[in-house]
# Entry
Amino acid sequence: MSGGQASEALERLIREYGDRAFQFAFRLSGNVEESKDLVQDAFFRVLRSWGSYDAARSLDAWFFRILRNVFLDARKKYETLHGVSLDAGPAGVAEEDLTYGDLLPDGEAAFLDALERSESIEKVQRTLAALSYEHRVVLSLCDMDGLNYEEISKVLDIPIGTVRSRVSRARIAFKRRLAVRLGGRG
Amino acid sequence: MNCPDFEVISAYSDGEATPEEVRVVAAHVRECESCFLRLRSVESAKLALRRVPAPRLPRDLRRTLLEAGPGLGDGRAAWRRFLEELRAGLLHPASVFSIGAAVVAAFLFWGRNEGLLTPRIELPADLLVAAHNQYALTLPLAPTERILTEMPDQIAASVTGPAEGRGVY
# Structure
């Protein structure tokens, strides 16, 4: 790609994906400075591999996949360096053990009331940030970025059936944690 | 009443359920208040997530991207990777300092031996011999001050060309 073409492609990418990429990165990392680094790396990586992009494929899925890979690379470096897993959640909450029984019907109405209050937004944000990476990323892509299951499967490189079950489990985990923050039952 | 799995309700909410599941859930939530509330809670949670304020791409990052973009894929990328690794701590500051100190020491050693650290003039051997002879012949006759001030000019003129107004001993 020539300098002019690269510059034009980059401007277009920034215009169309700048804000969304930064939002996605922020939800993954929860940190402004780290989000900046992630987005910068992702844009550079996109531009370098622009020639390999197939226009018949979803640009959304391609771009977010690169962004996610950049994040995973950065996370791997961090974990190697510090010897910790960034997926480690608060003690006593095993998200993978959540079941349908965690969604008790008698808590639904109170949960809905609390959720619709405007002051709940910050708690929603904190709850999302407290989820495991696996759950946070599917909820972000599905509910916030509006990607469908097929696009998410391409971003995360997992089968559509896995996306479906993971979204479902992420919602249960999210709801359970949020219900605790909102003061209701899960 | 057999309630559908939450996964089916979740997929139904996303428009990702199979036609059969859509038929079952649509009929079921009309009869089952619990599942109706579960479906509503999924929808409400999605709305709540969409209400979360979305940060925008910072101006400084936008500017950085636009400025750096066209020069990608070259040595700058390698330099950036080095800085990233440094920032990520993969390159320990002590290691970087040691590497830097070793490079400087090697340059000083090699540069001194090669004469890179001092101004260098290439003088042919025959010129040096001629200059020496001239010096030896004129030393007894010329004032010390003249020898010290003009001799270097004589040698330099031999290299760069004759200078007007200068006598030859």
User: Anything to note?
Assistant: DSSP finds eight helices and no strands in chain A. Helices of chain A lie at 3-29, 32-48, 59-82, 105-115, 120-130, 133-144, 149-156, 160-182. Chain A has two domains: 3-82, 95-182.
